[in-house]
Amino acid sequence: MEGINFNQIGVSFKGSGSYVPDQILTNPKISQKVDTSNEWIKSRTGISERRISSIGDNVTEMGYAAALSAIEMAHWDIKTIDLIILATSTPNDLFGSAPSVQAKLGAFNAVAFDLTAACSGFLFALITASQFLKGGSFKRAIVIGADQLSSFVDWNDRRSCILFGDGAGALAIEATNEFDNFIGFDMRTDGGRGSFLNLPSKNNKDSIIDDIDFLSGGFSSIQMNGQEVYKFAVKEVPIILEKLLKKMKYNSDQVDWLLLHQANQRILDSVGERLKIPREKILSNLEKYGNTSAATIPLMMDEAVRDYRIKQNDIIATSGFGAGLSWGAALIKWG
Ligand code: ACO
After folding, report:
1. Residue 201 CA, distance from chain mean position
2. Per residue in 177-211, pLDDT tens?
């Protein structure tokens, strides 16, 4: 960090990238493992298949691939990157996986750290990075969302194992002194409802020597009250988006794309209905990937940028929500 440039007033979106593992786990294949069916999963969630990491696909590798692709789209010299934030709940190093992404990229002038906020993680990381840019501390940032929830799913629990998949997405964002395409944001947390969705530590008591105990480290599997998470999402997401649009003096018909965390198609449809945003403006790719946690928003954004649905100056209303409980929204203009 070399000094503060107070002329930087805004953020511009320069590139996107994504990566998913090759292994495809379809609904019929899950039905061979737990008592479920393609029809049940499809009608309750909209999901048909998800990607599952194999050996060699960890959060560092996936995050690196997504980041590199965003950097290539932005046409950046890697040495000009100042900041890398990796949103993840499943780092392959509990001390942080962002530094290994930085090293693999060769982005030696960037400070790199992890940020954990489950499925809200990417949005919280994007907001965090944008504040560093607008504050004048940094010029170029890579924001990554990457998760490997398949390692923490209970593959015998049909209520949760059908939902999740692995993947990564990234955005390249830059400070500018001419305009601001990061229009506004809001973030919320309610730890009081945190027990609806957890990935808790599992500590086994052991002893170091004689009467000195210690707790060995480890994690259990995802524990979820699906109905409560569903109710939380369909209530809070429209509220936070409505408030944000109002605060920034936008109408919902000025929104070109609604880009929500890809948890369940019924949640996407319900939020769209509440905001009076028609279905053709709701971005969705969860049919192919399921819920990839911190990766869903940039994974979807990259797909829509690369197939030219999202165009320069399109207005995107986005919201992440999930464990914590945590949720947030941002209003951005692409480009
Ligand atoms: N296949 C067949 N039957 C099933 C399955 C399954 N995979 N899962 C549950 N059922 C059964 C239940 O046992 C229940 O049977 P019963 O009535 O005989 O007891 C019945 O189906 C209905 O169960 P519900 O839990 O009421 O099903 P619901 O319609 O709520 O759908 C779902 C469940 C899909 C999990 C839904 O609640 C949901 O999507 N919730 C949101 C979860 C979510 O998005 N979590 C991630 C948040 S993001 C993050 O931070 C990681």
Report:
1. 22
2. 999 999 999 999 999 999 999 999 998 899 999 89
